[in-house]
Amino acid sequence: MKPIKTRLLTPGPTIVPERVLQAMSTHTLYHRSPEFKTIFSETIERLKRFFRTERDTLVLTASGTGAMEAAVANLFAPGDSAVVVVGGKFGKRWKELCEAFGVKPVVIELEWGKAVKVEDIKEAIEKNPNVKGVFIQICETSTGVYNDVRAIGEITSKYDDVILVADGITAFGVYDIPVDDWNIDVAITGSQKALMTPPGLAVISLNEKAKKRLERERSVYYFDLAKEIKNQAKGQTAYTPAVNLIVGLNEALKMIEEEGLENVAERHRILAMCAREGIKALGLELLSEVPANGVTAVKVPEGIDGQKLVSWIREKFGIVIAGGQDHLKGKIFRLSHMGYVDIFDLLTELEAVEFALTRMGYRIEYGISVKAAMDTFIRAVHKRPV
């Protein structure tokens, strides 16, 4: 029997709510019109509340990588050094971006699945006095690892000329992160994860410490943050933006505000607990030593091809989950519980994994992961034993 619908349960893009789709389906506004200016300014103010800040918060028409590149190109000069945490595909991207713009990366190389130790950040800064910043993922999407950026911010805040640049593309909207209180000088996210909007928008938020670097000469054009700060303060962007995506993002932010950031974070925390307990009930092992709340990375059992498992789930059930990247291809699969996701989406993922594993010769008791997840959910939500 072929699936009659597709369920998108990857760690990006994620499911887009009907409300967001409907908002985006209206006629396209002229991006210099008063109507768009009103919506855009409202979206910026909602994003500031989302980040719990009053500082400059900008929307760029790009993927999250565009905001990553903007941070490197605008805030660092060729010849600068920066500490780069490489513990997965996207930490590796920070390193590659630094190299592309002549910034010398001081690499903290981690085994994929490990979280960075805060003392290693401090040691790297002290051993390299010319370091101008620290690049890190709050959540490394490729491994499902959460890094303690709050503790790292306490360290970087003690240095006048070291800024903390945090990729929170799979963290913001999963966790309630007050960027000012956590001393995150530059915060980055993207529309297609917990912000529940299609791909195409990046968000970058900068404090005064970071903005001072915009005063020096820079080799940048489209991603000129100084130009965007000036324009976006007036409710416009420097260049033509993705108008309908911004309308959709504004609606998604309304939904987050209605649920409440703390409640959104708690929902993600509970779903992550349910996912982990369901996976453990199958006798499988998590990849991450510090699991993130938006995505769970799971080691594939010996003798099973993880790529085939992911493909089989998609082809037979229409459920789209993610596999491993780079050297982890075929060795892990990743379950998303991020954004517009509830317990029933997660139970569907787990049952599909059970079907696929048994199809490939892995012996389990049907329903065992679902029961473990449901028991965890009942304990967490209703505060009572099962």
Q: What is the structure about, briefly put?
A:
The protein is of the alpha/beta class and 386 residues long. The protein is built from 13 helices and 14 strands. The chain folds into 2 domains: 130 residues, Aspartate Aminotransferase, domain 1; 241 residues, Type I PLP-dependent aspartate aminotransferase-like (Major domain) (Aspartate Aminotransferase, domain 2, 3-Layer(aba) Sandwich).
Describe the structure.
With 386 residues, this protein is α/β, with parallel strands linked by helices. It folds into two domains: 7-13 and 260-382, Aspartate Aminotransferase, domain 1 (Alpha-Beta Complex), CATH 3.90.1150.10; 18-258, Aspartate Aminotransferase, domain 2, CATH 3.40.640. Helices cover 42% and strands 16% of the residues. The protein is built from 13 helices and 14 strands. The chain has helices at residues 18-24, 34-51, 64-75, 89-100, 118-127, 149-156, 208-211, 225-232, 243-259, 261-281, 306-317, 343-359, 368-382; strands at residues 7-8, 56-61, 81-86, 104-109, 131-137, 139-140, 145-146, 163-167, 186-190, 201-206, 295-299, 319-320, 322-323, 332-336. It has a seven-stranded mixed sheet with strand order 2-10-9-8-5-3-4, with helices on both faces. A three-stranded antiparallel sheet has the order 11-14-13, with helices on one face. A two-stranded parallel ribbon has the order 1-12. Helix 10 runs parallel beside helix 12 (343-359). The longest helix is centred in the last third of the chain and has 21 residues, at 261-281. It starts with 6 loop residues before the first strand and ends with a helix.
